[in-house]
């Protein structure tokens, strides 16, 4: 009888197992999924802020508090300016559920118009400049007489 040349089933299974182990240990080095996840989370927060600002503007319009250049408080306790949430924890912070508890967020009064910045939870960040220093945050700009409120994602440092 002539011997067949080739691999046995056990040899093939061992090679497949070794390749699987190599793939599991090497794949994270080639695929940086954490950065993509952070950027996507920031985009989600931006969407939540935009949606909340739109809803609050609708509530302010119903209550007749969608104009005027002074800060007003809605029946729900949210502070608004020109109908949009203010850039404070009582404004946009109260409008977005979990913004002040799940994220590190601060009012940034050094900008004009005032803004509210939020990034991933960190105990080492103690003010708005610490948030912006991460280059991985969402910024909500308060409405002005000339423009509606707006949000911006900065993800160059994620």
From TrEMBL:
Pfam family, one: N_methyl
Regions that span the bilayer: 12-31
SUPFAM superfamilies: Pili subunits (SSF54523)
Top-level taxon in the UniProt lineage: Bacteria
Keywords on record: Membrane, Transmembrane, Transmembrane helix
UniProt-listed NCBIfam families: IV_pilin_GFxxxE
Protein name per its UniProtKB record: Prepilin-type N-terminal cleavage/methylation domain-containing protein
């Amino acid at each position: 009888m002539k011997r067949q040349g080739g691999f046995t089933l056990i040899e093939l299974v061992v090679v497949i197992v070794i390749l699987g182990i190599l793939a599991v240990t090497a794949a994270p080095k080639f695929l940086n999924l954490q950065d993509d996840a952070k950027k996507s989370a920031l985009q989600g927060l931006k969407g939540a802020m935009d949606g909340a600002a739109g809803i609050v503007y609708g509530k302010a319009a119903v209550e007749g508090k969608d104009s005027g250049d002074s800060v007003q408080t809605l029946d729900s306790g949210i502070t608004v300016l020109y109908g949009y949430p203010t850039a404070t924890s009582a404004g946009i912070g109260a409008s977005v559920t979990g913004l002040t508890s799940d994220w590190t967020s601060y009012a940034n009064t050094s900008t004009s118009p005032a803004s509210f910045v939020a990034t991933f939870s960190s105990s080492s960040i103690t003010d708005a400049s610490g948030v912006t220093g991460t280059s991985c945050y969402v910024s909500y700009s308060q409405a002005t007489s000339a423009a509606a409120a707006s949000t911006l994602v900065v993800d160059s440092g994620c």
